[in-house]
Amino acid sequence: MKTIHVTELHKLIQSNADIQLVDVREPEENAAFNIGGLLVPLATVTRNIHLFEKEKPVVVYCRRGVRSQIAIQRLMLKYPFQNLINLIGGMDAWKKEIGV
């Protein structure tokens, strides 16, 4: 599974890189703090496959990086994705290293 560190992702976002961000947390978590992107809670990932970009990198994130890893595994089992990237440490790491 491809991964990315929060500092690398922060640089990509600042440079307006052509990536898709997908938050697999619950709506209340997303409302409390997020870095943008599309909200697709983990329980709905496989039925919302049409929302995931196929032609550009898709960075999937959650609170700590576990749910995003599960989401990627579920998607890769059912579909031939090669562009999914897990954010290591999720929003907890982002808050610690980048700030709020």
From the coordinates shown, what is the CATH architecture?
A: 3-Layer(aba) Sandwich
How many runs of DSSP E, i.e. beta strands?
A: 5
**Structure class:** alpha/beta
Low-confidence stretches: none
Largest sheet data: 5 strands, parallel
Strand order of the largest sheet: 1-5-4-2-3
What overall form do the CA principal axes indicate? globular
The helix/strand series, from N terminus to C terminus, equals: EHEHEEHEH
The CATH topology comes to: Oxidized Rhodanese, domain 1
In angstroms, what separates the terminal alpha carbons?
Answer: 27 Å
**CATH superfamily label:** Rhodanese-like domain
Q: What do you see in this structure?
A:
With 100 residues, this protein is α/β, with parallel strands linked by helices. It has one domain (2-97): Rhodanese-like domain (Oxidized Rhodanese, domain 1, 3-Layer(aba) Sandwich), CATH 3.40.250. 36% of the residues lie in helices and 17% in strands. It is built from 4 helices and 5 strands, in the order βαβαββαβα. The protein has helices at residues 6-14, 27-32, 66-78, 90-97, and strands at 2-4, 20-23, 38-39, 58-61, 84-87. It has a 5-stranded parallel sheet with strand order 1-5-4-2-3. The longest helix is centred in the C-terminal third of the chain and has 13 residues, at 66-78. The protein is globular. The N and C termini lie far apart (27 Å).
